[in-house]
Amino acid sequence: MEYRSLGNSPLRVSCIGLGARSLGAPPGDPAQQAGQAAGASVEPDRSAEWERVVHRALDLGINLIDTADVYRRGGSEELLGRVLRGRRRQVILATKGGFRRQNGRTTQDSSPEYLRQAVEASLRRLRTDVIDLYQLHASDPAVPFEATARALEDLVGAGKIRYVGLSNVTPEELAAFPAPVVSIQAPLNPYQRDAEGDLLTEARRRGVGLLAYAPLLAGVLGGPLPPDRPWPPGDERLHVPQEVVADAAILARRLDDVGRRWGLGRVRLLLGWAASRPGVASVLVGASTVGQVEANAAAGQPLPPDLLREVEAVVDAAGVTVQRPVPMRVVEVLPGARSPRVAVVEWGLKFPVPQSVEPGDTILVEIWSGRVLPSLPAPETSGPEA
User: Fold this and answer.
1) What's the domain range around 346?
2) Same structural domain, 213 and 346
3) Are residues 226 and 355 in the same domain?
4) From the candidates 71, 114, 191, 213, which is the catalytic residue?
5) Residue 3 annotated to the active site
6) Strand 362-366 vs strand 325-335: parallel, antiparallel, or unpaired?
7) Residue 18 shares a structural domain with residue 158
8) Over the stretch 115-124, which tens digit does the pLDDT of each residue have?
9) CB 77 within 8 A of CB 50
10) Cα dihedral angle (126, 127, 133, 135), rounded to 10 degrees?
11) Which of 18, 100, 104, 198 could form a cystine bridge with 171, CB 3.0-4.6 A?
């Protein structure tokens, strides 16, 4: 396993990290409890398998584990807190905060009061005295960066967290954040490469390392693709636009051809490609089985230069990028901290918007990046019908 510096911090992280988004059971799941009470079939308890995944990751040299307080509604942190007893010193433990459930909706909240509560709750679930890397999960446009930064610096000073990171931020937000930051998180795969532009330029200027997530595009590129094997109802991969899935099937076949010549699988090639990008400190990839974590850890050494050039040629030929604009109805408008106004949409999320946006309006949001897009033009007509 190769280890790299995390930004300008003294932390050395494995170039492949374990993303724990799918690990752990949500606590007190009402549907699960109702199913058990009625004798219905419910999701099986996979705790033992998840624990084996974490232990196997550590055995293979993966020392960075990334989670968040909202993953599995706190269940991911709870699982890690149990599993890491006795092995805590082997792990650089990273979690994220800044989302909260309110009135049945999830919204950003990076106010000092909430962040202090969130850190204390994460410490309890993780059963640790200090969090190695605490990351702001998403920018809250209604809270000034200065207030958020002071709160995080106070938590560092109090010994609750060691280092601060940011997730899902723009280059402008990274440049404006007034506290020391050692890492950023952003998606990086053949169809999401925005991080390789201005964001990484700003990260290098500030001495910040990139933690690249979604290297397999939510699992789309990790196994068979439709129509060879249709995904079941409710599968997260069904949210990926169909034109991307169609192009991914072509890209997967080309990578498989390259892999056969070199005796390597597609996952190894894709993780190796992501880890080779300049500025990447670690590639965060999920695993729900021991076999998956073993396949991921195999990418812990760089690809041979000749092979990397072949993979780069295939990836560079990807024909589309992920765009998933979703119309969202505005239910409330608040004063903005870094924009004229902040729209709260019916899902609960907040977005910076122009002065002209009012409650009841519909805004168009690119769901993968969180950017508010210009409204779609009205369709042209050829005049009144005869």
Assistant:
1) 325-373
2) no
3) no
4) 71
5) no
6) antiparallel
7) yes
8) 999 999 999 9
9) no
10) 40
11) 198
Radius of gyration of the chain (CA): 22
- Domain end, chosen from 273, 290, 316, is at 316
- Count of the separate structural domains present in the chain: 2
Identify the pLDDT of residue 122: 97
For residue 306, the number of C-alpha atoms closer than 13 Å in the C-beta half-sphere is 4
Mean per-residue pLDDT, 238-259: 88
Domain of residue 365, CATH code: 2.40.50.140
Cα–Cα distance for residue pair 110/148, rounded to 1 Å:
6
Which residues contact residue 193 at a Cβ distance below 8 angstroms, ignoring those fewer than 6 apart?
Answer: 321
Q: Which ranges constitute the DSSP H helices of the chain?
A: 30-38, 47-59, 75-83, 112-126, 145-157, 171-176, 198-206, 242-262, 266-276, 290-297, 305-316
Q: Point out the domain boundary residue: 287, 316, 345.
A: 316
> Rounded distance, CA 320 to CA 323, Å?
9
Q: Answer yes or no: do 22 and 158 share one domain.
A: yes
Using the structure block, give the residue that is written with the tokens 């004798």. Answer: 39
364 vs 236, higher pLDDT: 364
